[in-house]
Amino acid sequence: MNAFEYAMVLISIIVGLGITHILSNLGTAVHRLRHHGPAIRLESNYLAWIAFVFSWLVNFWWWEFKWSELAPDFGFGLFMFLVLYATSLFLFAVILVPARLSVVVDSWEYFLSIRYWFYGGLLVLTQLEQFGVA
Fold first, then answer.
1. Is pLDDT of 22 > 60?
2. Which of 70, 77, 91, 93 is 20 to 30 Å from 117 by CA-CA measure?
3. DSSP code string of 8-44
């Protein structure tokens, strides 16, 4: 196992935690939709944002897997950038999908309450992408 593969294990774990967070809390929402607990109202635009963030996490994981074939010059700076990007994606998922989805009654009201954090996180992630490409 070379240094790149070793480092990608940590980054894959961080991305996997974000995917797990989204899926486990959507499971809670499904149970509530089946009348196991208080009712929840899920808006389609909120679900679309969740699908977007989920696909972003999966695409980043796939990109990092495919990037190993390019054999980049891997150093500490690149490692720190990738850890920062993966951590930012994880935090973005946590902002969008609360850890206690059981306390959310209306997804639209919840989204409006976190919109400044959400759009701020979206701005940070897109700027990190631009920084990483340049």
1. yes
2. 77
3. HHHHHHHHHHHHHHHHHHHHHHHHHHTTSSS--B--H
